[in-house]
Structure formats: structure tokens, C-alpha cells
Amino acid sequence: EPIQERFFRPHFLQAPGDLTVEEGKLCRMDCKASVSGLPTPDLSWQLNGKPIRPDSSHKMLVRENGVHSLIIEPVTSRDAGIYTCIASNRAGENTFSLELTVAAKEIQKAPVFIEKLQNTGVTEGFPVRLECRISGEPSPQIFWKKENESLTYNTDRVSMHQDNYGYICLLIQGATKEDAGWYTVSAKNEAGIVSCTARLDVYTQWQQPPQTTKPKKVRPSASRYAALCDQGLDIKAAFQPEANPVHLTMQPGLVESDDL
């Protein structure tokens, strides 16, 4: 007497839930269907009720353990929607659905300096700040180096700071001669890396130079104001607010010392 073959409608042993994937990344949906007889079910996928056909960015795989996968790479905004997996055989069918949300791709911009480090001088024993401003998306990591030595942690005297507006600062309290040298700040994120270097000079307390100095040179200039500015002097700070520098009597010769 022939044995009658029994057929059973498939059901899912494993099914994924709703997914959120960033645009441009890989999305994988795994499921496993089981039947208590033959034939094994056929699986198909739909997006918003329309069949999904395999192509260069949509692949359907079946592993030996019975796990079926829909792989989408790269994900685009057109892939967002309701996905339905249908398992069917001659006894019937079963389905499950999930929603795929495609998040906007993260904006990436390599770091750039809005304001670079500047060469700086400070009198020994006084505080000094090495400052710059950097932009980048996502917010870059900041690294400081003195000469070839990395500055990896803050101390009571030397500390590194940054805020949410891109301002970066290395603060030195009570500068010493050993603090003088070349300082480099680097900014790095997923899009790139940028660096900037500047020199810090530390001077001893100023003293009156001895009388036996080198002969002074006269700097010719048609404009007294321009001559003062050329020497790095702040003309506005040098005179009282109510004074007018144009009418002041200048010394007969404008001099510049090689020792300055």
C-alpha cells in the first residue's frame, strides 16, 4: 500500500525586526523557514508589494543551514520601505514583514584651519597660550606635539583645551626656558588630517642693556608713524588717548638697535 506523503504549510523559525541603515552602507536581512515535510518552501522578497529582482546591488543567498538572506549594498533612499518575505510550498504560504529606514549619509569634511597657530614669545615666568581654530565634520580629534614628543595628558602647568566652536588652546602656566621650541597641533577625522606648526620663544626678564652697545643705525622713513609701526610699536598705546601723535615733537633721528 503506497505511503501517502504529508504536506505542511511553512513557518519561520527566524525573522529580523525593523532596521535602520545609513545610506551607502550594507544592509542584510536574514530569515529561516522550516517545514515538517516536503517539499521545502520557496522564498521570495517584496518591497512595498513589488517583487525584488536580483541585480548588482540586491542579492539573495541561501546557506546550508537553511538561512535565507537579502543583501543590499549600497543602500540608497529608494530602498526604504516595507519588506515582505514570502515562504510558500504546495501546502500554503507564510510571510513576515519589516520596515527599512534609510538614514541620511553622514556629512564628512576634512579638517581645515580657520585660524592657524602663530609664532609666540613670552617672558619667563608668565603664562602663554598657543591658539588656533579648526573646522571639520565629524568633529576632529586633536593631537599636540612639542618637537617630536607627544603631549598626551594635562598637568597643573601645561593643559590642552577645546570648545564646541573649534577653538583649540595649549595653555602653559609660568613658562620656562625648557618650554621654548616648535609646537605642532594636528586634527584628524574620517575624511582627513591637517597639521600646523609654530614656534614658542621664552625670554628672560628684560634688563637695561649695557652702555657699550653696537653703533645704532638710522632707519630712513618719510612717515614717522610708518617708521614706528615698522618697528612693531603700537602707536595708539604709546600715547595718551587725547594726544595727537602728528603734532608731537620727535627725536632728531629714529634709531633701531641690533640688540632688540
From TrEMBL:
Ig-like domain boundaries: 10-101, 111-201
The molecular function GO annotations come to: actin binding; cell-cell adhesion mediator activity
Provide the GO biological process annotations.
Answer: axon guidance; dendrite self-avoidance; homophilic cell adhesion via plasma membrane adhesion molecules
Look up the signal peptide feature and give its range.
none
UniProt key word tRNA processing:
no
Q: Name one GO cellular component term.
A: Z disc
* Cellular compartments annotated: Cytoplasm, Myofibril, Sarcomere, Z line
Q: Which family does it belong to?
A: Belongs to the myotilin/palladin family.
Name this protein carries in UniProt: PALLD protein
Source organism of the structure:
Pitta sordida (Hooded pitta)
State the taxonomy lineage: Eukaryota, Metazoa, Chordata, Craniata, Vertebrata
The primary gene name is: Palld_0
